[in-house]
Amino acid sequence: MIACSVAGGYAVDAEQDTTTGIYGDAQAKRGEALYADRCSSCHAPDMSGLDQAPPLTGSDFNTNWNDLALNDLFERIRISMPADKPGSLSRQEVADVVAFILQKAEFPAGQTEVPTEAEALKGIKFVAKKP
């Protein structure tokens, strides 16, 4: 079942979600380096957000993406980031940054990597961690 949300994303019923180990530690490490180089100047080194750039961790972030397909977050980053060069990250780089965001939010790592294909990402649900 897929349902459109008010924010324009899609809620999904998926077998995989952010609590099932959808990224690996090596991928998150690559994402950490990319984040430090391309994202931290706007979103802060600790992902708390600066000025107009929103936080990429915490309850507000989780609430905004909860029950949406991971593809929604992936595409937001791919199309609009970094702010000074939107769309300049490769699909692999975006997947690596997403893995780092999940790691920083303390979602469990697994033996796989965040995929780069839209169809696979649409089958993964962002499930906010319970407070």
Structural class: mainly alpha
CATH superfamily: Cytochrome c-like domain
| Rg on CA atoms, Å | 13 Å
SS elements, strand count:
4
Low-pLDDT stretches are 1-13
Could you tell me the CATH topology label. Answer: Cytochrome Bc1 Complex, Chain D, domain 2
Q: Looking at the structure, what is the overall shape?
A: globular
Per CATH, the class reads Mainly Alpha
Helix and strand run: EEEHHHHHHE
Helix count, DSSP H or I runs of 4 or more residues: 6
Strands of the widest sheet, in order across it, are 1-2
- What portion of residues is helical? 40-55%
Distance between the termini: 27 Å
- Round the mean pLDDT to the nearest integer and report it: 90
By CATH, the architecture is named Orthogonal Bundle
3D structure, described in words:
The protein is mainly alpha-helical. The chain has a single domain, classed as Orthogonal Bundle (Cytochrome Bc1 Complex, Chain D, domain 2). Helix content is 42%, strand content 8%. It has six helices and four strands, in the order βββααααααβ. The protein has helices at residues 25-38, 40-43, 59-65, 70-80, 91-104, 118-122, and strands at residues 2-4, 10-12, 16-17, 124-125. The strands form two sheets. It has a two-stranded antiparallel ribbon with strand order 1-2. A two-stranded parallel sheet has the order 3-4. Helix 1 packs across helix 5 and helix 4 (70-80) crosses helix 5 (91-104). Residues 1-13 have low confidence and may be disordered.
